């Protein structure tokens, strides 16, 4: 697929990047990136996690300066030294993580940092009028006097967009805007984007979800390993072709072939309830059983008790009531170390906080969480040779890309760190694997490899609790599916028949009413 | 000399470069010392080395008193002097090293100020029999070349205690000790005895600013002020500050509250640094370290050096109370009467509580 | 380690050496501004470096500094700040001196006496730091605050006990008070060096052993691994089954036990009793030495020797007419610049390593590679 000329004949692109190169240690840098975004279009930038999209956006938003290359806005070369410069040039950014103060109103959030002044006081009336105006013009459906705390995720995102528009942006960068949305909200967002486009605004949409990109974008630029490899029109490509462009090879599919579920319960949770310090129920009477050879998938919008569930199962958090049984033994009051030694593997959600020691070598990270067991320890002493040999094996088997097992984990990309973690946890031959987002941030090849490892272990009677934000992964990899909402299990689904839309509804609670 | 320096420099850097591991290596003993003693002797062949206690010259108190004696000796006897200071938290070995460096440097008359040097003097003196040593405030090191210069601080404290009792209208007087060590407890014992001798029912409110090994109590006016304020608020109207430089704060508090203070070691009424609070200082317990220092240097100079204990008490004039400012003129007769009784032995002042 | 090792060594030395040179320049500047000759100063220091006594004293001082640094480093390794080493060693030295000097000890065999004294000091040190650990794990009290407080309490406790009415006695004819002196059999005789009246503390070997154990435990044992893990990331440690509370208690106890040893070389090798003039403040020097030596067993040894040497050249400087305070200035500047230098080097190292990984894996492709 040839790179086509995306420059508008006659008119200037709204934003154009030429020859952008950023040498940035460790993670993917940008190398000769070329993108032209025509005004009044939705331009999607796709690529795997770690392909260099974020770096590029940071450059475009003035958070980082390129080592080489030029940014043109409306045909004029511009150097950004800070986001303020970008805003001045009419470029606004909607971050993946919202930056809103919960206890303030929409109005207050929007004017925060850019207070409207009339004389000495703040001119809230004018601001309120303008917010209403913007909201009506672009169909954002936002009331300036609503408290942000009361708004749902979709509405919060629209507030973020409004905030950017309020500051006068004509080009909007949306960084993975759908990552936090359920399918219905995604559709709403796309409606909003079309409105914005109709009003002449330009949108740069970053995503790695191809169906969405194909649905909303007018043009698509694909990035791979730090550089732009193609610019295509949605009508010319299928999702599969696009994905292969992103990966540069054929694609894996998350699916389980035949059922290996046995009737031997391995991990049982009974009536688990966890309360926060202020008495709120974080987990509400959660019960389930995972059998040997079974993968139980937990679907849910992030922050609905998944983290608490995992921590309770691993003994990091104590439940207010309820029990956890491992192979018929009550382990509710036992330590994390005991649980790990009894055959529980753990792939934590936040690998930098819980999964690796960034400032320790790979082989030391191999020991982490397995410091009492072979091949890492002999009695009270560490078995350094054993640990190193096994690390070398993991590096090879799990394709951890590193020059040596003596480099610090911080030198590896997130995906390679994750591969090391998965390899480590699988290497202890666990009976149960608690996996939170096991393939988050890894490239497609590694994703396939991780799925393969899980499948193989499942065939050998591994019981898995799988938590993921990727509904395709959940549906494809699970034998049974449960939906968690506000700390409670609100439904069970058969992955063979359920659609992502149905799951999405259940995750937001819409399923119960409808 | 130039050449010597170059070689030494190179050798020193080499020693550093080897990580100092070569401590036990062969270095001819005494080279370091010999090279520094290259200066020709002066008219008087007495060269005085003085090792201060922590605080050194400028502490407004004990060390300064010694410094005054040294200055006087230098001026009147025309001798060469060298002053070295101590560091906080040092070991005996470092104190020994200080004395040895002086001795090796050709200083044949060495003064160690303060009992902290007693171990060091005991160890160093025998190895330098031709050098005359003096130590202040300690009788412990006994050697043919060591003079032990000690003071009867309790006797002087008794007199200022009597003065405090006579001047007090409330019957409550205060004692502020710099650091809670036996030496200062000796001051308290004498002071209390003096107060009780005048007014048996008077009370003495005693407070020490710090506990050893924290010796900042001798040089922390803020602590002195706080302690004095506490006492004044409790009805005390005369405070004896046996706390070195911290006394300054106590006098400041006295001036602010219209109370009275008593100085220590020097005649503090006449100290320039205390000029703005001097009108509250009714008297000072004068411990004439300067006299002891000067006497000792002079004795060596005159070839009349005598080893062993020399007590500076009321009788010898090494201890006294001061009358500068005229605040005790009205009770001077009474105080002198006590003084005579102590000298004659009629009153035995306790040195311990 | 392969290709990383040479550079690792160079980088490891760059920070302390750079800091040393920098602080030497600062000191030279200060000396010149205050009308003293930097050349004279270096000259005096070099002269001191050739006096066997200075070197022996430096080594002896370094021995106690090293022990204090190890005590501090045990906590530092897991981001636990035991500021209380000072109080721990003073209390430990005082109480073990009392035990060692007690009359009933005189009849016991020498080896037993010395062992008992050292063990008692370790126990006292551990007990005192254990209080801080207990407060931390049960009440969440920051160990920084509690150990500082315990330092003050130790000071009062020692001066309460160091009283003729209690555990001490007046030194005859002196204004000093001390515990009952340890008699011959309870002492640890030093090593004689020609040209020096000071002997080398025999307990320098104890410090070496402690340093070796520190290294061994940290790098070769499960416990050491869990300790380091907790220091690098508490959340990762928890997820890995490390009980952080237990680690706090253990490391505080170990730190305190090592702190208890700090006073031993001086007590058993030179002072033979705990008196008012027993050296104080070594615990704080230990913090500086641990910082300078980056908690590394060899690094701290070098730092302790440097510190000890600087301390012991002060007298020579004084004799040469250079104010001894220059030593304090130099030490202060060294610590500050070392901290800054290490951070700079650390950042450089991380970047270099990431570059290395990037290069090795060829992550950033050229245009030709991509389009081919």
Automatic annotation (TrEMBL), chain C:
- Bilayer topology: Multi-pass membrane protein
Is the keyword Cell inner membrane in the record?
A: no
Signal peptide as annotated in the record: none
Q: What is the lineage of its organism?
A: Bacteria, Bacillati, Actinomycetota, Actinomycetes, Pseudonocardiales
Q: Which PANTHER family match?
A: ABC TRANSPORTER, PERMEASE PROTEIN, GUANOSINE ABC TRANSPORTER PERMEASE PROTEIN NUPP
State the protein's name: ABC transporter permease
Q: What is the source species?
A: Actinokineospora xionganensis
Which keywords are on file for this protein? Cell membrane, Membrane, Transmembrane, Transmembrane helix
**Which is an annotated Pfam family here?**
BPD_transp_2
Q: Does the keyword Repressor apply?
A: no
Q: Tell me where it resides.
A: Cell membrane
Q: Where are the transmembrane segments?
A: 9-34, 54-76, 88-105, 111-135, 144-162, 200-218, 248-268, 326-345
